């Protein structure tokens, strides 16, 4: 039997496999390559002389032996994390405020559950969202008016700002099942030219479809705006126009047949989200944990997202 002492990283790996259901998603969550994760799993299985997961099924399942270790992970890892938070509080003093600036409307769909989970871990943190979306939140960080910002796309490096990857997602075109474009496998920029585009009331540079597809193609369709995601989807379902939203926002409407989705371009329109923090506060434990928690929950719970 190979000698491989059970370490915290092994428990983290097994828990990630159990919760993510695939080697690729678990590796992304743990910031590992799939090869490194497989090697780690193989060493553990060699140590115990038994399989810990069933990789031949989708999603993969943990075996009875693996389940015992996952149970241990669920008991031990939260205690280790709690002890780490307590040590950080003692070493760094009380946590400060955490004011979050958001650059996109639909970020709220996944950010609110992450904030709810975070509050139970850091109840003393004054957690708040700066009212409304902000076109350029980075000056707020530099002026000390926010501690964290959720932003689109990779930014140019700045001496005063630290950028942390959150996840990659796909923006899909949405239309009524009765819309003529629903017969296409994917939509091209020209398909939007004669349509009414239903969007949030934000500048074009803040819309994935406009920024990465239509504006470069010189296409500027008619507009209708709505503040809420559900209002956009209702207008699309009623045949009032078409829209483009992240795939995680539309699952229920597609399942019920209210709208259909199509890729934008044959490879799809892939977009990115990052967390930005001031370099002066980026190493604060309570801020680092918020970034890590939002990333982990997003990769685990949101449909159609992947690691950056």
At a glance:
By secondary structure, the chain is of the alpha/beta class.
Give me some keywords for this one:
308 residues; alpha/beta; two-stranded antiparallel sheet; 10 helices
Q: How does this structure look, described?
A:
The longest helix is centred in the N-terminal third of the chain and has 29 residues, at 64-92. The chain has helices at residues 8-20, 23-29, 34-48, 64-92, 108-121, 138-142, 208-214, 229-237, 251-255, 285-301; strands at residues 53-54, 61-62, 98-102, 127-133, 148-152, 161-175, 196-199, 222-225, 243-246, 260-262, 269-278, 305-306. A hairpin with a 6-residue loop joins strand 1 (53-54) and strand 2. The chain is built from 10 helices and 12 strands. Strands 3, 4, 5, 6, 9, 10, 11 and 12 form an 8-stranded mixed sheet that branches. By secondary structure, the chain is of the alpha/beta class.
Query: How many beta strands in the DSSP annotation?
Result: 12
- Taken in chain order, the helices and strands follow as HHHEEHEHEHEEEHEHEHEEHE
Point out poorly predicted stretches. Answer: none
Shape: globular
Q: Mind describing the biggest β-sheet?
A: 8 strands, mixed
What layout of secondary structure does this protein have?
Elements: H1 8-20, H2 23-29, H3 34-48, E1 53-54, E2 61-62, H4 64-92, E3 98-102, H5 108-121, E4 127-133, H6 138-142, E5 148-152, E6 161-175, E7 196-199, H7 208-214, E8 222-225, H8 229-237, E9 243-246, H9 251-255, E10 260-262, E11 269-278, H10 285-301, E12 305-306
Parallel strand pairs: 3-4, 3-5, 7-8
Antiparallel strand pairs: 1-2, 5-11, 6-9, 6-10, 6-11, 6-12
Helix pairs in contact: 1-2, 1-4, 2-3, 5-10
